[in-house]
From TrEMBL:
InterPro entries, per the entry: Protohaem_IX_farnesylTrfase, UbiA_prenyltransferase, UbiA_prenylTrfase_CS, UbiA_sf
Anything else known: Carbon 2 of the heme B porphyrin ring is defined according to the Fischer nomenclature.
Pathway: Porphyrin-containing compound metabolism; heme O biosynthesis; heme O from protoheme: step 1/1
Top-level EC class as recorded in UniProt: transferase
Protein name: Protoheme IX farnesyltransferase
Encoding gene per record: ctaB
UniProt-listed Enzyme Commission number(s): 2.5.1.141
Organism: Ancylobacter pratisalsi
Main localization of the protein described in the UniProt heading: membrane
GO molecular function: protoheme IX farnesyltransferase activity
Membrane topology label: Multi-pass membrane protein
Segments passing through the bilayer: 38-55, 61-83, 104-125, 131-151, 255-275, 295-315
Any one GO CC term of the record: plasma membrane
Length: 317
């Protein structure tokens, strides 16, 4: 039996659709396939890449690029849910997604994701530029194939390597606006890349039972909580000075420098707490605080970069 067929069989056995009447998926079900929370982060970081890029870009071109990047991100989410439907059915935080819940079939999700993927890349290439389209195509491929189909079930370094997919949007936005790739876009890529492991490993620490039940080799499952805490601290030690580098290299203003220093200090403090608190409710609470704050941390960094770009006179730039 093929992987796809066995996955559909498992889902059918776990939670079959009603047989007495057909089920029609709602618009909300298809929106859920797009992973809207992830998509919102992609849109936001891509927007920062667009506005930080040198030169002027027409608002229509910028909007078209942002829309294509958003749709491409949604396509990646749909393809991820199609392939991962079997393990999603086993995890408490994902078992209510449209496919394992029986509201959308794997085939429907695959067709939906592929249509969005091809359409977003073609439109971006035809209406914006080929470099941005190529980067978007690579991003979708990396997330759907390299991360989802290969790394996620093969290595505990899945989040480290696979995190590149989530780090590409500001680079795609920069390419869409400028037609090239600049040093600042590379720095934005690296900030998200090194932010991803401590962010997701903090989640994995208190959701390790889910991953173990689904057979996903996340770091806490394979190497244990102690090694995961150590890795979180090491990556945070790299992340904090890296996040300050746009200011240190003169690419961002003083406000960004202050915000990155203060929030970076808090991020490091929370990572130290995760490293030190290893037992019981205190350990879980520390991991939850780091996970929640890491989202705010990345948002504040990119929000200040965005504000500095659109209102430079306010910051004396």
């Amino acid at each position: 039996m093929s992987d796809v067929a066995s996955r559909e069989y498992d889902l059918t056995q776990a939670e079959p659709r009603p047989t007495d009447a057909p089920y029609y998926a709602s618009v909300a079900d298809y929106l859920a396939l797009l992973k809207p929370r992830v998509m919102s982060l992609v849109i936001f970081t891509a927007l920062v890449g667009i506005v930080r890029a040198p030169g002027d870009v027409h608002p229509v071109i910028a909007f078209t690029a942002l829309l294509c990047i958003a749709i491409g991100a949604g396509a990646s989410g749909a393809l991820n849910m199609w392939w991962d439907a079997d393990i999603d059915a086993l995890m408490s935080r994902t078992q209510r997604r449209p496919i394992p819940a029986g509201r959308i079939t794997p085939g429907e999700a695959l067709a939906f994701g592929m249509t969005l993927a091809v359409g977003s890349v073609l439109v971006l290439g035809l209406l914006v530029n080929e470099l941005a389209a190529a980067l978007l195509a690579f991003t979708i491929f990396f997330y759907a194939v390299v991360y989802t189909m290969w790394l996620k079930r093969w290595t505990p370094q899945n989040i480290v390597i696979g995190g590149a997919a989530g780090a590409f949007p500001p680079m795609v936005g920069w390419a869409a606006a400028s037609g090239g790739i600049g040093l600042e876009s590379v720095l934005l890529f690296l900030i998200i890349f090194f932010w991803t492991p401590p962010h997701f490993w903090a989640l994995a620490l208190y959701k390790s039972g889910d991953y173990a039940r689904a057979g996903v080799p996340m770091l806490p499952v394979v190497a244990g909580p102690s090694e995961t805490r150590r890795q979180i601290l090491l990556y945070t030690l790299v992340l904090v000075p890296l996040a300050m580098s746009p200011f240190l290299l003169g690419m961002a203003g003083i406000v960004y420098g202050i915000v990155s220093a203060i929030t970076g200090g808090l991020m490091l403090l929370l990572a130290v707490q995760v490293y030190r608190r290893r037992e019981g409710a205190a350990a879980e609470a520390a991991a939850k605080r780091l996970f929640a704050f890491s989202i705010l941390y990345l948002f504040l960094l990119f929000a200040v970069l965005l504000i500095e770009a659109v209102t430079p006179s306010w910051f004396g730039l």
